[in-house]
Amino acid sequence: MIRRLVWWASGLLFVILTLIGSVPAQAEDVDYNYDVRIEINSMRIPYDVPPLIKENRVLAPLRATFEALGASVLYDHATKEITVRHPRAEVRLRVGGSTALVNGQERPLDVPAMLFINRVLVPVRFIGEAIGVKVSWDGNSRTIDITGGSPAAVASVGHQDPFVYDYEPEDIELLARLISSEAPGQPYEGQVAVAAVVLNRVRDPRFPDTIREVIFQPGQFTVISNGQFYKRPVTAQAYEAAIDALRGRDPSRGALFFFNPRKTSNKFLWSREVTVEIGDHRFAK
After folding, report:
1. 3.40.50.2000, 3.40.50.2300, 3.40.50.300, 3.30.457.10: which CATH number matches 8-156?
2. In what order do the strands lie in the sheet with 43-44?
3. What's the chain's average pLDDT?
4. Where are the domains positioned within the chain?
5. Is 245:192 a contact under the CB 8 Å cutoff?
6. Topology given in CATH for the domain delimited by 171-284
7. What is the pLDDT of residue 278?
8. What confidence tier does 24 reach under pLDDT thresholds 50, 70, 90?
9. pTM (2 decimals)?
10. How far is CA 217 from its chain centroid?
11. Which end of the chain, C or N, has fewer beta carbons within 10 A?
């Protein structure tokens, strides 16, 4: 399986929408191809989650995009209200809302702002033009070009970690389901470690070479055989842990197995070299 360093905007091929810890079904009107680019003054913006297209409108991560344009961004998690302040204008809108206030004047939105893997995405053309920058779309290269903002601000955006694994559209959901069913209530580091075990197996020639095949390999994970894999609710934290693992984070220290020593007497697992213990789980090679 080919491995290559995948930078921010090209990474995610499968979407999980998370809102207050719940995971709504995939929207049919969203384009999940994830090859949309956003450039400000010809400098590409890297993101930890990608822009996407909904109803022929590009939605972009709120803070990374508009702070690069010299705007200040406020998001109220309780009310889901967004405020973008720029020397030219102030824009207020709400996640899921159909209107926005631009300098106090109400305007309709073609598409609402939305939550996407715990990030707020907003209609980039609407807000960009509201604060007085030029926004253009190249359909051939699927690129949004924004003229305006500060080059220094744009350069400061590129601090997110890269993705270091290739993966298929469903893989984030599969990892998050495994975490939620195998490690509910465990420390966050332990949840990342569970996903890392799967990815370590993908790289190991003794195991299958895709995330799906590793997870569904017969006899490997109890939650598959007892049906809990699809029964337990998937948490927003599990998605974050899956993404962290895909970025290369490995609290398991290279482990290929994990188990709860209080719940198993499996001689094979007990014979393995322990790498670390996190929460209720022991990780081993």
Report:
1. 3.30.457.10
2. 43-44, 37-40, 143-147, 134-138
3. 79
4. 8-156, 171-284
5. yes
6. Arc Repressor Mutant, subunit A (1.10.10)
7. 95
8. very low
9. 0.50
10. 26
11. N
